[in-house]
Specification:
Elements: H1 2-36, H2 38-42, H3 51-76, H4 83-102, H5 109-149, H6 152-157, E1 161-162, E2 177-178, H7 181-212, H8 215-226, H9 233-254, H10 264-288, H11 292-300, H12 305-333, H13 337-342, H14 360-368, H15 377-411
Antiparallel strand pairs: 1-2
Helix pairs in contact: 1-3, 1-4, 3-4, 3-5, 5-15, 7-10, 7-12, 9-10, 10-12, 11-12, 12-15, 14-15
């Protein structure tokens, strides 16, 4: 029976395509006949809708009716009955001939198609909003369950993170410690190292490409830089673990210090390289958005190219550059694979970039990996971490979008 449904769905696809072509050709022939007879006498050859819209209307109606019948059969419980495919085929054929009978100069096929497209866009927008709302509510409800077992003050201000809890009453010393300060400290430490690399480098690349590079150099260099954005993060993680980490350890040992292979510095450096294309691309766009008339005015007053860049162009593009930096910070905070492979999982409260640290995303993965039950504080802690990370990222994105919006309004 499942094989029959495959054939039926193929037949529905044929009806959709065939219905579009059939009614489109029918509308085209009627339009030509109208133009040759009535239009030639009255001087009017306009129809309300082009022939394509009659075909689009047919295709949409056939597809929607088939989908509706399929959903109805699933709810009724007769999805394996042969009667539903037959109904689907007859309804599709009926719709094709129904639309054919409606084809005329005054038939508003375009209006119906545009209303359907508008409704589809609204429906998809509502799905996106509801999905976001569902994510927020799921995080919120599970976080509230966690805070019923662990005080919020302990979670937000505690200095020790050890989420191991006792599975039996005779397991002493396994009550767990859920102070998230070391995790957030590690997250921001790696983010600071990454931004210290990506910020200046990405901004200087953007300045060079937008103000100093020739068109030929820009056409070659910019795609090469943006290739970095297409490299999977796991590849960056391997690079950090096998190359950057040992290099940092060897350098520190040459200075007389003992550091582990996994460190915040190794993860931050590689993450910064990964974020460079984001900052350079966004900064390049906002620098190019500064009107050329402002540059020309600066040159007319005798300013050099460097003076114009520092005092005029950079000042005008500063809000957009700040927005690019905030978006890059959000990207760095949410990274997981590089941190897992290059920084480790140790929740150390330290400001030393040569030590191993962990981040919020890494701990979320660790807490939810394996066969876990959503009843213990250990597992529920992942939702509390996710909620705090969501709030932080949301705040940064809102600030970035607000700054960019103000910048755009300035030059519109």
């Amino acid at each position: 029976m499942n094989q029959i449904w495959v054939y039926i769905l193929a037949l529905v696809a044929i009806m959709v395509i065939g219905g579009f072509a059939y009614n489109r050709n029918e509308a085209l022939m009627q339009f030509r006949a109208y133009k040759a007879s009535i239009g030639a006498v009255s001087g009017r050859t306009d129809w309300h809708s082009q022939a394509n819209y009659h075909g689009y209307l047919t295709a949409w109606l056939v597809a929607l009716s088939s989908l509706g019948i399929l959903i109805l059969s699933a709810f009724v419980g007769g999805a394996n009955s042969w009667i539903w495919p037959v109904i689907m085929v007859f309804v599709g054929i009926g719709i094709i001939f129904f639309v054919r009978q409606r084809i005329s100069p005054n038939f508003r096929a375009r209006t119906h198609v545009e209303r359907f497209i508008k409704g589809l866009l609204v429906f998809l927008s509502v799905i996106a909003v509801l999905t976001t709302l569902g994510i927020i509510l799921s995080l919120l409800f599970e976080s509230l369950r966690f805070f019923e077992k662990v005080p919020m003050t302990e979670f937000l201000f505690g200095l020790q993170w050890s989420p191991q809890t006792a599975l039996r009453a005779d397991q002493a010393g396994q009550s767990g410690a859920f102070g998230a300060v070391p995790i957030f400290a590690g997250t921001f430490l790696i983010m600071l190292v990454a931004m210290a690399i990506a910020g200046p480098v990405g901004l200087m690349i953007a300045v060079y490409l937008s103000e100093y590079a020739s068109k030929r150099v820009r056409k070659i260099v910019k795609p090469i830089i943006e290739i970095l954005a297409g490299i999977p993060t796991v590849v960056y993680g391997f690079f950090a673990l096998l190359t950057v980490g040992p290099t940092v350890r060897s350098f520190a040992e040459s200075l007389g210090f003992a550091v582990p292979t996994q460190s915040a510095l190794a993860a931050g450096v590689v993450m910064g390289v990964m974020i460079i294309p984001l900052i350079s691309s966004l900064s390049d766009d906002v620098i190019n958005a500064v009107p050329q008339t402002i540059r020309d005015g600066s040159y007319a007053l005798g300013a050099t190219k460097s003076e114009t860049m520092k005092q005029v162009v950079f000042a005008g593009a500063l809000p957009g550059i700040i927005g690019a930096f905030l978006l890059a910070i959000s990207r760095a905070i949410g990274e997981t694979m590089i941190v897992v492979m290059a920084a480790g999982r140790a929740a150390n409260l330290t400001g030393n970039p040569f030590e191993a640290v962990t981040t919020v995303t890494v701990q979320i993965v660790a807490l939810l990996t394996g066969d876990q039950e959503f009843d213990s504080p250990k597992t529920l802690a992942a939702f509390a971490l996710g909620l705090v990370l969501f709030v932080i990222t949301l705040i940064l994105n809102v600030i970035a979008l607000t700054v960019v919006r103000k910048y755009r309004e300035r030059y519109d």
